[in-house]
């Protein structure tokens, strides 16, 4: 695979930080003057990327002793694609929170972003002793039915998910969904 990495200055941090099309952030080399008037060079370096509690990667940017923590996927999107549209979020297409390459990012509504997760809308109802499939979109809940067979519930769930969310529906194999429902049971 060819390495077509491209670096661009980060909006609002030009001359201080740059972003890579592969999801990296680097501090740029620059000359600064300290409080005593002495000039010195801050060397360029790749920043260490750290996950937050939700698993999203962030970096801390520092200019004039002011720190600003930013989520890397949002920085990459804004640097290479543009302003995040109002009412939209940045979605990881492959559902891997640490893959912040520009080709893996897209804008999505909250509902679309949630659809692109590995959450499962299939669970076992102890009262009815059947598998229940549910899904929601734009604050509307859909009950897809109760099933004796877990596989049938998963199939109905997958079909409805694809119908409601199209390309934003996380592409799970039937085996993956069945395994996830085993974990949740």
Q: Can you tell me about this structure?
A:
With 185 residues, the chain is an alpha+beta fold. The protein has two domains: 7-108, Homing Intron 3 (I-Ppo) Encoded Endonuclease, Chain A (Alpha-Beta Complex), CATH 3.90.75.20; 112-184, 2-Layer Sandwich (GCC-box Binding Domain), CATH 3.30.730. 23% of the residues lie in helices and 34% in strands. The chain has helices spanning 72-80, 110-115, 150-165, 174-184, and strands at 7-9, 17-20, 25-27, 30-33, 39-42, 45-46, 50-51, 57-63, 66-71, 89-92, 105-108, 122-125, 130-137, 140-147. It is elongated, with a radius of gyration of 22 Å. 19% of the residues are buried.
Outline the secondary-structure elements.
Layout: E1 7-9, E2 17-20, E3 25-27, E4 30-33, E5 39-42, E6 45-46, E7 50-51, E8 57-63, E9 66-71, H1 72-80, E10 89-92, E11 105-108, H2 110-115, E12 122-125, E13 130-137, E14 140-147, H3 150-165, H4 174-184
Antiparallel strand pairs: 1-2, 2-3, 3-6, 4-5, 7-8, 8-9, 10-11, 12-13, 13-14
As a whole number of angstroms, the C-alpha radius of gyration is 22 Å
Q: Would you list the SSEs in sequence order as H and E? A: EEEEEEEEEHEEHEEEHH
Number of helices: 4
Derived structural class:
alpha+beta
Short description:
This protein is an alpha+beta fold. The protein has helices at residues 72-80, 110-115, 150-165, 174-184; strands spanning 7-9, 17-20, 25-27, 30-33, 39-42, 45-46, 50-51, 57-63, 66-71, 89-92, 105-108, 122-125, 130-137, 140-147. The chain contains four helices and 14 strands.
């Amino acid at each position: 695979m060819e390495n077509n990495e491209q670096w661009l200055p980060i909006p609002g941090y030009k001359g201080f930080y740059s972003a890579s099309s592969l999801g990296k952030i680097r501090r740029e080399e620059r000359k600064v003057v300290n409080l005593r008037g002495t000039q010195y060079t801050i060397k360029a370096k790749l920043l260490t990327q750290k996950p937050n509690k939700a698993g999203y990667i962030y970096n801390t940017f520092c200019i004039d002793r002011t720190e600003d923590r930013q989520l890397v996927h949002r920085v990459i999107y804004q640097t290479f694609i543009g302003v995040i549209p109002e009412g939209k979020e940045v979605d990881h297409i492959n559902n891997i929170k640490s893959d912040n390459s520009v080709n893996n990012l897209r804008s999505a509504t909250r509902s679309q972003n949630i659809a692109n997760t590995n959450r499962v809308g299939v669970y076992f109802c102890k009262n009815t002793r059947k598998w229940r499939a549910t899904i929601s979109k734009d604050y509307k809940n859909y009950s897809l039915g109760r099933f004796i067979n877990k596989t049938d519930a998963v199939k109905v769930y997958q079909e409805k998910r694809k119908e409601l969310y199209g390309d934003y529906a996380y592409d799970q194999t039937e085996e993956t969904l069945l395994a996830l429902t085993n974990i949740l049971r």
